[in-house]
Amino acid sequence: MPFAQLLTHIACILPLAFLPAMALLRFSQGADRLRAVADAFLCWTAVSYAATEIFGLFHDIAFLPFLLLWTAIDGWLVSRLWRVRSKAVEFWRIPTGLPALILAFILAITLFIACTAAPNNWDSLTYHLPRIEHWIQNRTLGYYPTSTMKQNDYGPLAEILLLQLRVISGSDFLYSLIQWISMLCSTAVVFRITRQLGGSESQGWLASVFVASLPIGILESTSTQNDYVVAALLACFVTLGLDAISRPKASLGLVLAAACAAALSGIVKPTGYISGFGFAVWFAFELSRGVDFRTLVSRAAGVTLVLILVMGPPASRFLEAHQGMQSRLSQDSINGSFGIRQTLDNLIRNGMLNFNVGIPEIDRRSNQAVEALASNLGLDTYRQQTSYGHFVGSAPPVGLYVFHEDFGPNSVHSLFLILAFLATMIRWRASNPARRIPYFIALLAGLIIRAAVLRWDPWQVRYQLPLFVLAAPIFATALPGHWLSRRIVNAFHLALALVALPPLLFNQSRQLVPLVPGQPFPVDWYRPSYLAQTANTRLFANNPALRQPYEDAVNAIVHARVTQVGLLQHGGDRWEYPIWRMLRDQGGFDYPVRIEHLAAEGKAEFPLGPFQPEAVFW
Question: What is 489-534 written as a DSSP string?
């Protein structure tokens, strides 16, 4: 490896080093360990977002500005930490025990996969990752011509976090760490939320293991999707909000930090606003009670300013491009009809997705039973208006595809949550800590609003990840007191650990353990571990047939030393990122190469001026 490339690979640690450094600093300043983790994640996200927006405003998204930014910030943090190093060391004294070992096992395996697998998620190859390449090429976050409007219209924050690593390292080898870090933050923060709701330490551990063992969470934690980033920011919002409403005179800074976390969650994906809506209403109500007029006005003005600063940049770009609030993508995502029956139907269908097991006959019977129930209740009348595209009926994943990051059902966790919800409702008059019932209602509000607003599709499980994370404290605190013996709690831990094993080992995009036909599963072909595959084979794991055509096309572009590559990719699901990745890997960027879309949606102009392709990829 050339020395310059080695230096850039080392330098890409700078944005990531901010996280532990800030957590240690906050801990040394008096924050508890888990609050320090939440503060560090929120600060890291906010700094990355603000810096990128500012650099993009001046068309300066490039290596040097980001290198100087993170070097300066990390240097400042290290200098502050040096003065309190004796206290900061206490941060690492973490209790041990069975739940800690389970968490360490799950986190270690997922970290290994995240650092060694290719970023091969379908949506990532279509729009998550290509938009980063266009931002670097254009040196701005501004809209550009594209045949996939998702690259422009969708929330940019998760990709902005990825951009910090890409622009400094010149590579994507650490991309999956963003989701993994979000998973780590979520498992830590739900422990704190559980304690804030009056749960014991053992219940806190149970909530953390619940989150870490979520099948869809494990599958996403090694990908370049963005649902775990939403979940982590919402968890930060909730824990900070609970802090604020629990203090007689909550500081304005604490209120604004909570508002910032909530606002940022929707800049990742608007589902963050939907999932967190109930909590936002609850916190706003509590923070407006019993305060003087001056405090109320200062809080309202501060929160409004935070929302404007966070939501303003992407909103202004969207409004300028579409001349209004509506776009085709929003119409495809939002229900065309609203009402009680539509909401109940979507709730039932969303729940059904979590109980698929991958065995066709079982899934066919269970799905038919649920469909019959919805039909007998007259709930399926409006499905054409409450479903995405042609996905009106159920289409369960078959076989090992239940361990795919787009489908991954959470059967055991869903069953536990149903029992926990019932227990919470039955015992609502019991002497529970005052915060549990409002928390439960706020969580249900997000669940119901999602079903009322968003169209159903077969991939809804991954969008439910933030709600599963926020539901973990409900599960942990719903257990009756006489069930909290070490033996029973450890039984729950072991059950959840067993549920975590299949998605850890048999992720269909990044399969760790090879499978031989008939041993032990009835697979029809040999399925090797991704560790035994070439880089390009890993990249095309979700559609292997595309690898050879892409390789042939990229080889032709490189050999002809083409500098202007046009993309003619009709439809919203065509893979663009492999072109950028393979050109980079084959030395195609040793000379200036510009890649632009030719059949573009919308009216955006090329940020770099007129474009005349020398070769066209279709």
Answer: HHHHHHHHHHHHHHHHH--SSS--S-BBTTBSS--SS-B--GGGS-
